[in-house]
Request: fold
Amino acid sequence: MNRRTATVQRVVGFLLAGASLMMLPPVLVSLWYEDGTTSLFLVSAAILLATGLAIFLPVRNIHEELRLRDGFIIVAVCWLTLALVGALPFLLLSEPQISYVDAVFESMSGLTTTGATIMTNIDGLPRGILYYRQQLQWLGGLGIVVLAVAILPMLRIGGMQLYRAETPGPLKDSKLTPRITETAKALWLIYLGITVTCALAYWLGGMTMFDAIGHAFSTVAIGGMSTHDAGFAWFDNPTLEFIAIFFMIVAGINFAIHFTSWKRASTEPYFRDPELKAYASLLLGFVVLTTIALYLNGTYDSMSEAARYASFQVVSAMTTTGYSTAEFALWPGFIPILLICIAFIGGCAGSTCGGMKVIRIMLLYRQAAREIQRLIHPHAVIPVKIGGRKTPPIVMDAVWGFFFLYVSSFVLITIALNGVGVDPVTAYSAAAACITNLGPGLGEVSSNYASLNATAKVILSFAMLMGRLEIFTLLVLFAPAFWRA
Reply:
């Protein structure tokens, strides 16, 4: 066997064996509530451990430094494998009985923090399964692979290649600390701290501890799955909605800024970041626009009530969380389409959000503005600047390439869904909701995806993975030149 291939195999096997540990917390929840699902998670853990060891042990003594190409392969294989094996607890459920395609869809949706679901009686699910759904989102939020980077030194393998392949946004080469393992640990400590704070806030706001932990997982991970059929609307509590809005916004901010602010014990980094300013401005603008539209259409009787529901839904949509406190698909006029469209923007680069990211939208806008200026002043030299700094041409090329692939992928997925029997409105919104990792859509998928056929669910599962890995990481594997390099 090629030594480099063996090194990739070794890392994948180790990560899969380690992933068996993610089944242990649901076991404890199942035992605590005595819901009869303990065996589901123990069997799933055993399969993960056995599969991982079978892959790892034959090549455990082979040590080669990872190349960037190896990082792409490892990330894609690990995410796909974890989604496939992570589906086992859903598949092994006796009630409701679901197909393997449905189980993979639910697992992929959780790991990619999309929040789309095929479950129709969520309130009736065992507590162990409910917890597992929420945990999947939390683990996928900042990236299972980034978590593993913190322990890769035990294998004497560098982790920068994995970090570059998995970290969302156009800032893949920036490191918060000199060593990549320290970076991964710092990100997870911040992630854990925000999650604990969110859970406590939910609990103090009136949730049960079980709901508080579950919704903290999905809020900070920008996942959107809930422990109730009605979603966040089940609580009908303005205080809890305010807490959710705050933490959705926080999770949509670049985690590098959280780290810098924490390290300096100062809020200054938040006020100096140009992307964060644009992110806040867009959120405020869309909230005001939606509030006015809801009030003028008579959807709500008072401006304050319109502002309450508009604020929650806009923040949930733009951060691609997917929570809902109202049937926004039934809102009048352009509002449902607007909410789907702003999910394409997403949050800041380096956050747990989906979408194209605010920084890319800023660069595309300023590039377009520059082209207009060039029409007026053909000989002028007008650089594209962000925060007073010139943007290198290589970055602009990457952004334009990403934008083309993102839009093209969305169009092709929409056409494919329509081709397998999904109506146009549902096809458009489902493709948008899955590639942006938003979750809820319009038409047949406004509440869940159970009614879609198996082929459509497979297509959408691929769309969720593309969105989570930001197109390039996955599509590069389909380029013949990648395998010849």
About this structure: Residues 3-235 form one domain. The first strand starts at residue 385 and ends at 386. The chain has 23 helices and two strands. Residues 393-419 form the longest helix (27 residues).
